[in-house]
Amino acid sequence: MKKIAICGKGGVGKSFLTYVLTNAFLDQGFKVIVVDGDESNFSLHKYFGFPSAPQPLVDFLGGKPALKEVLRKSFQSNTEPTLEEVNPFNQKTFKLSDFPEEYVLKKGNMALVSIGKIRKSLEGCACPYGFLTKMFLEKIALEEGEILLLDTEAGVEHFGRGIEKEVDAVIVVAEPYLDSIEVAKRAYNLAKELSKRTFFVLNKAPNELREKVLELCKANGLEVDAVFPYSSKVYEASILGKFGLVDEVMVPAKELASRILLPT
Ligand SMILES: Nc1ncnc2c1ncn2[C@@H]1O[C@H](COP(=O)(O)OP(=O)(O)OP(=O)(O)O)[C@@H](O)[C@H]1O
Ligand SMILES: [Mg+2]
């Protein structure tokens, strides 16, 4: 299980789960590459303790307008997009070390890269970022002992773009309420449709309603792989742009990491 996408409805805890799972895998001796594939949120680097975000990979390809132009030409001529410059994206595969250091933030055995962010009104849709995310996942060659975690944007659009095609597993996260569980069910089924190994995580579960919510998950065909409790410590840390690595969430995170690592 090398490349893993984390998805779900807005605010369910995808970034939080990316963070705690990164730490769980690091604890087990893995190297972890975190890919920020969310074009709307700006804070993932802060949770990992970096003072600023990595330069987005879209800049490496000349910025969003340039990439948009490549895609426009490709649609018009019905041919594969061609990137004119010599760069790692033109290679069959690449490694993180093929990029200049401003694109890859490193801390111990983890590295963070970011695809790109929406910054201006009227700048157009996020399609170029979807294309770039897919190409990045397809081309990055992971070494033995490396795991990649992709933090996706809210919702299921990335399934439509084919991003999950490039990963080995999908973790679907939901909060304990109907809309969130229904989005999770859709994502879960979309991942299964692609024959991906699929995990379902119930996050922010309040103890007193746990059984009721687990019943709702079951009724929606969601087999629960991990339950993370609602933690006021985690929430409090997030007010300061941090995620707490408290036992109440690290215990299920480590169990989930071990489960993910089990052979199929
Ligand atoms: N188990 C938990 N207990 C308490 N708070 C939590 C828990 N998990 C996540 N949170 C909090 O919920 C908020 C949203 O979490 P997070 O940003 O990870 O969600 P997300 O799914 O990535 O959101 P988005 O869709 O905007 O990317 C944060 O304040 C986070 O600290
Ligand atoms: Mg997020």
The helix content, as a percent range, equals 25-40%
Major sheet strand order? 3-4-2-5-1-6-7-8
The computed structural class is alpha/beta
CATH C-level label: Alpha Beta
Task: Give me the strand/helix succession.
Answer: EHEHHHEEHEHEHEHEHH
Spell out the CATH superfamily.
P-loop containing nucleotide triphosphate hydrolases
Principal-axes shape call: globular
Q: Note the total helix count.
A: 10
Total count of strands: 8
**How far apart are the termini?**
9 Å
Provide the domain count. Answer: 1
Radius of gyration: 18 Å
Short description, anyone?
The chain is of the alpha/beta class and 264 residues long.
Indicate the topology:
Blueprint: E1 3-8, H1 14-27, E2 31-37, H2 44-47, H3 57-60, H4 64-77, E3 105-107, E4 110-114, H5 127-139, E5 146-152, H6 157-161, E6 169-174, H7 178-193, E7 197-205, H8 210-219, E8 226-229, H9 232-239, H10 247-261
Parallel strand pairs: 1-5, 1-6, 2-4, 2-5, 6-7, 7-8
Antiparallel strand pairs: 3-4
Helix pairs in contact: 1-10
Bound molecules: adenosine-5'-triphosphate and magnesium ion.
